[in-house]
Amino acid sequence: MFITARQLFLRIFLCFICITNTVTLAQPDFIFYFCANNDNYTINSTFERNLDTTFSTLPTTNSGLGFFNHSTLEGNDMVYSAAICRGDIEPDLCLSCLNDSMVKLRELCPNQKEAVGYYEMCWLKYSTKSVLGNIYHIDGYRVLVNTITSAQRDRFVEDLSSLMNKLKADAAAGDSLLKFAAGNTTGPDFVTIYGLVQCTPDLSKMQCIDCLENAYSYYATVFNQSGKIGGTVFQPMCRYSYGLSRFFNEGIPSPPVSSSSPSLPPVSSSPSLQGTKCNSVYLSLSIYTML
Ligand SMILES: *[C@@H]1O[C@H](CO)[C@@H](O)[C@H](O)[C@H]1NC(C)=O
Ligand SMILES: *[C@@H]1O[C@H](CO)[C@@H](O)[C@H](O)[C@H]1NC(C)=O
Ligand SMILES: *[C@@H]1O[C@H](CO)[C@@H](O)[C@H](O)[C@H]1NC(C)=O
Ligand SMILES: *[C@@H]1O[C@H](CO)[C@@H](O)[C@H](O)[C@H]1NC(C)=O
Ligand SMILES: *[C@@H]1O[C@H](CO)[C@@H](O)[C@H](O)[C@H]1NC(C)=O
Ligand SMILES: *[C@@H]1O[C@H](CO)[C@@H](O)[C@H](O)[C@H]1NC(C)=O
Questions:
Q1: Where do the Gnk2-homologous domain residues begin and end (predicted)?
Q2: What is the chain's mean pLDDT, rounded?
Q3: CA separation for the pair 129, 159 (Å, rounded)
């Protein structure tokens, strides 16, 4: 395990992620965020300027399928940043999620040189160290689980494992633009189990597998939560989620058609998108976190 446990908190948490309106005055709260407190910057420092520059460019660096990365290497205060949207999220929602996360992370981590913030639809991280191609750099992850255990725990775990193993292999086999997989399987008593996994696409196939296995080990082994009917592990380089209702969209949106600029088209609120994005719900999740 590459992040050492220092503390363990357990709280009851109700989490409704329901984004129907892209016009909001304030940014929604993160599901979880983490500011590394061991290295701070000061107002008007090179680091702050580099962070400003990095964040102003980041939204224009969409690789095409919701992955963003930009670094500013001026002076000795390098800033690396990357952001990723869930693979099933439409480009306009993806961009507004990234916008929200940049504002929110600056607000919550006002002077920290490394931070990560997670929304349901996207996550953002920055650091003084490279944030690409390495699963070990950034701390800050969270495990959420549903409080209910399946009545047929062993069969549930078996069915869940085979689904998640398949999704893990599918996601890891993705290319340098997208490492994402979502699907379902039938569990005990004919329930449908839905799963979603995603790695940042800069990871190699092996790194993606390691990251997802690490996520699973937090959930199952570290917190001994096997058999719970829903759960999510957010890590800076990968995400692992499952539950008994479909919390993602079918299919993967096509990349924005744009030859001159990799940035996204302006937001035009499309009525057909409303509602379908409003189903990412984990009820009564306990939060297990180690900081
Ligand atoms: C960095 O700043 C945070 C709050 O802004 C503070 O809690 C922390 O102690 C600081 N770290 C150092 C090393 O000064
Ligand atoms: C930061 O720079 C601005 C403009 O140069 C200046 O007005 C402000 O007083 C500075 N703030 C600090 C805390 O140094
Ligand atoms: C993101 O922020 C930029 C700059 O603040 C703004 O121009 C753009 O419209 C925003 N995009 C979305 C989708 O909110
Ligand atoms: C399960 O996934 C398949 C594709 O693998 C899809 O056709 C089907 O609609 C899904 N079932 C449910 C209940 O969502
Ligand atoms: C990150 O950005 C750099 C510079 O724009 C680019 O060359 C590289 O391909 C990007 N990496 C990924 C994994 O998208
Ligand atoms: C893990 O949880 C199961 C079921 O709740 C329990 O039977 C088992 O003893 C637990 N194992 C550990 C190591 O706590």
A1: 29-131, 138-247
A2: 81
A3: 39
